[in-house]
Design goal:
Strand order of the largest sheet of chain A: 2-11-10-5-4-3-6
Distance between the termini of chain A: 22 Å
Largest interface: A-B, 32 and 31 residues
Oligomer: heterodimer
Largest sheet of chain B: 6 strands, parallel
Radius of gyration of chain A: 22 Å
Shape of chain A: globular
Strand order of the largest sheet of chain B: 5-8-11-14-17-19
Number of strands of chain B: 22
Strand content of chain A: 25-35%
């Protein structure tokens, strides 16, 4: 057994360090092409480092802060809309790529010269497309995404390129726990057989989780080690008869899983048609916002995607509810205690990541 | 404005014969417009300058992917009017933009909603109602008095029992003929107090 302190799950100083050194420095999932269906549409992503507009202008995609250059008022409040940005406070106007196009009364009230201010742009955020998914990075000169995610993660995301259909499902749910706890739960290969005996375990074979773990005690030296892509086990019951009616991005035989540090989990339960993107967006030390996006690939039209999305939502609701209840209960008692947690050998990856955080952030 | 526009994309399977039984007003001329549709969607503008009434979109099953976009263009074009509640000779009441497959038998007292696809060899019983944007696969049987809500998908060969109610957004794969007066509730959108939304339908 190895010990870790509980402080990291509720202390706001720890959270501030995480925001400054992790969330604001790393690539995080923002949205998919389904969220930008038209050639002049935007999607508003609420991140720990601010509200970010992801905007589409033809086939050009850009990202910038939802913050007017004048007084910092939000330009948009709706999550989706057309990329025609007019600040409601003083009607400053911006183009789809974030360029300042017009200031009402520019000469009279601001002594501003249009020839000069039209070079101004909303504070940009870096954006990268992997397949049909968009990742953003708060830094203007970010690290290469290949430094954060290994080639297996990237190549398997790239398989979705031009395959994700327009119809999607989304929801947002506030949760009362630290973002790290739910990810440690996701990296815990033993918990499904105990916590999800009648739900997830019935669909995925967790036999591998019951074998003796191969423990890696080496310290993490590369960001790539924080994220993973896996085929978690053969589908026990391939109950996805709709698959033939949709484009497949993989072989259709495996339960695909991306665990993307810091806070994105993408299970693909049918081997390449349905992608459930779970973003556990950190809000504070004890609060996380669960943003769920269900995407499905383009279909032949033989089967409507809507019932498939709802069907998966109901399945996921059971499994996620079991996880959320467990992790919320953990958080509640952790905040009332100064004790330490004890991690077993099988949890070596959670231990390594926490040791990495200790050395990189907290100490 | 008296031209009837059938948009035909697949002469091999569902030809103009799919509209057999449709009795047209004497002054209506039928015009078939052939469209080649591809995934780049770059052929849709071809239909934007047409005049007339649109009875139906005759297509292979895969065509439904593009039907939504076609409806959008058609409905935004003032020169093209929907041809509501056509008479099939059986006095069937079918709303606009819907498609009836070959050899389907629809009771004269049944109603079919907007933009609904009814595959070949479908039987729809007396006093039954089919909602908008539904998909009824080949050989589906809707027994008398059944009510199918909007956006319901019923797979090939499935039979729905007498007096049953299938509420919106359901997908039915299992044969339910033995169940009379069965009610399948609408899919929940509640997620622990939060609401799930579908986009770009």
């Amino acid at each position: 057994m190895e010990n870790l302190d509980y402080k990291r799950y509720y202390n706001s100083d720890n959270f501030d360090l995480e925001n400054k050194k992790i969330f604001s420095k790393l690539w995080v999932f923002a949205c998919s092409i389904a969220d930008l269906p038209k050639h002049n549409s935007y999607f508003l992503a609420k991140m720990p480092f601010g509200e970010i507009i992801i905007s589409r202008e033809g086939d050009y995609f850009s990202a910038f802060h939802n913050k007017c250059l004048h007084r910092g008022h939000p330009l948009v409040t709706e999550q989706r809309g057309e990329s025609n940005f007019v600040c409601p406070y003083h009607n400053w106007c911006y183009s789809a790529n974030g360029g300042l196009t017009h200031i009402p009364g520019d000469g009279d009230f601001y002594f501003a010269d249009k020839d000069e201010y039209t070079f101004e742009r909303l504070q940009p955020v870096s954006i990268k497309r992997l397949g049909d998914f968009f990742f953003i990075n708060a830094q203007e000169n970010p690290l290469a995404i290949e430094e954060q995610f290994n080639s297996e993660i990237i190549s398997n995301l790239e398989k979705t390129r031009d395959k994700i259909g327009a119809i999607s499902l989304s929801l947002s749910l506030p949760l009362k726990f630290n973002w790290k706890l739910i990810f440690e739960n996701l990296r815990d290969p033993l918990h499904p057989i105990y916590l999800h005996p009648t739900s997830l375990t019935q669909e995925v074979d967790f036999y591998a989780s019951q074998t003796k773990p191969v423990v890696n005690e080496d310290p993490i030296i590369s960001l790539k080690e924080l994220s993973s892509f896996s085929r978690d086990g053969d589908l026990r019951n391939v109950h996805a008869p709709y698959k033939n009616d949709f484009m497949l991005c993989d072989n259709g035989e495996n339960y695909l899983n991306w665990l993307l540090f810091p806070f994105t989990h993408i299970p693909c339960p049918d081997g390449g048609a349905l992608y459930s993107v779970e973003n556990y967006v950190p809000v504070s030390a004890g609060e996380t916002r669960f943003d769920l996006h269900l995407y499905i690939t383009k279909g032949t039209g033989k089967t409507s995607p809507i019932p498939i999305l709802y069907d998966w939502l109901m399945k996921a609701k059971v499994v996620l509810g079991e996880d959320f209840d467990a992790v919320t209960a953990l958080q509640k008692l952790i905040e009332q205690s100064d004790q330490q947690q004890n991690l077993g050998a099988y949890e070596h990856q959670n231990l390594r990541i926490n040791q990495f955080l200790d050395s990189y952030l907290y100490e | 404005m008296n031209k009837l526009v059938n948009i035909l994309v697949d002469k091999s399977r569902l030809s103009q014969n799919a509209l057999l039984g449709v009795s047209l007003p004497a002054d209506v001329q039928s015009s078939i417009v052939e469209l080649e549709i591809d995934r780049l969607d770059n052929q849709f503008n071809l239909i934007a300058n047409l005049n007339g009434l649109v009875l139906n979109l005759v297509s292979p099953e895969t065509f439904s992917l593009y039907r939504g976009k076609l409806y959008q263009i058609l409905s935004s074009n003032k020169n093209i009017l929907p041809f509501d509640n056509y008479s099939s000779g059986q006095d069937v009441r079918v709303a606009r933009w819907s498609f009836i497959g070959e050899n389907s038998n629809i009771s004269s007292s049944a109603k079919v909603g907007l933009s609904t696809y009814i595959g070949p060899n479908v039987v729809i019983g007396a006093n039954s109602k089919i909602g908008n944007f539904c998909w009824l696969g080949e050989g589906v049987v809707i027994a008398p008095g059944a009510v199918i809500g909007n956006n319901v998908t019923i797979h090939d060969g499935v039979r729905i029992g007498t007096g049953s109610q299938i509420e919106k957004f359901n997908e039915i794969r299992q044969d339910l003929l033995a169940n009379t007066n069965l009610t399948i509730k609408s899919i929940q959108t509640d997620f622990y107090g939060s609401t799930a939304y579908i986009h770009n339908v």
